[in-house]
């Protein structure tokens, strides 16, 4: 839909490949960090592999890609905006989500530190924190009607989010309409956290 966008396909856990590919792709004014994995395991069964993979993708990749892009923004002397896609799971414990909740909580705090340190360079950093979104990953993890019913019953709007719900929130945070917003988490959760 946007001919000016050139996708890069790479393993974000590979720091050298990421540095080379993203470093050559600029210049940047906007960044959305949306890559994530959700390996769901009960706390007592969490494996080292699941923890390492989740940390690599959900936290370390965001830090690394943001460093590359922010350095370019600063070198260009242009204002910018970064939006990190977090989750309502950063704020509320969910069964079998020990690793996912933890990485998303860490992402929220990383985003606040980024906002504080990048603000003097006129780079804003925020998160969107959606409820379950009906992506392929959302469908895989929430296809069980009993499991999904328990979650939907806690959402005052009575439904999971659609992709456009999250996209529209991201577009707002990237735009000049949110020019005084940084270090914030925009909940796109249908009211889940107030219930």
Descriptive overview:
- With 195 residues, the chain is an alpha/beta fold.
- Helices cover 45% and strands 11% of the residues.
- The chain has a four-stranded parallel sheet with strand order 1-2-3-4, with helices on both faces.
- The relative contact order is 0.14.
- The mean pLDDT is 94.
Number of helices: 6
Average pLDDT score: 94
Query: How many strand units?
Result: 4
Give the strand line-up of the largest sheet. Answer: 1-2-3-4
- Residue share in helix: 40-55%
Order of helices and strands: HEHEHEHHHE
Structure classification: alpha/beta
Distance N to C terminus: 37 Å
Q: Could you tell me the strand content as a percent range?
A: 5-15%
Instruction: Give the CA-based shape.
Output: globular
If you compute it from the alpha carbons, what radius of gyration comes out, rounded to the nearest whole angstrom? 17 Å
Which oligomerization state do the chains in this entry correspond to? Answer: single chain
Largest sheet composition:
4 strands, parallel
Unreliable spans are: none
In short:
By secondary structure, the chain is α/β, with parallel strands linked by helices. It has six helices and four strands.
């Amino acid at each position: 839909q946007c001919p000016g966008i050139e996708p890069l396909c790479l393993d974000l856990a590979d720091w050298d490949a990421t540095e080379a590919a993203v470093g050559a792709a600029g210049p940047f004014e906007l960044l959305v960090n949306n890559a994530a994995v959700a390996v769901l395991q009960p706390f007592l069964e969490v494996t080292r592999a699941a923890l390492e993979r989740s940390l690599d993708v959900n936290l370390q990749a965001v830090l690394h890609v943001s460093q590359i892009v922010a350095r370019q923004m600063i070198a260009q002397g242009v204002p910018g905006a970064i939006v990190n896609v977090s989750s309502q799971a950063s704020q509320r414990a969910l069964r079998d989500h020990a690793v996912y909740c933890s990485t998303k909580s860490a992402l929220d705090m990383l985003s606040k530190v980024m906002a504080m340190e990048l603000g003097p360079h006129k780079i804003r950093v925020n998160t969107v924190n959606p409820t379950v979104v009906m992506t392929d990953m959302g469908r895989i993890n929430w296809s069980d009607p009993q499991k999904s019913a328990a979650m939907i019953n806690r959402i005052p709007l009575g439904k999971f989010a659609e992709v456009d719900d999250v996209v529209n929130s991201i577009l707002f945070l990237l735009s000049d309409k949110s020019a005084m917003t940084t270090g914030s988490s925009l909940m796109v959760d249908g009211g889940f956290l107030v219930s």
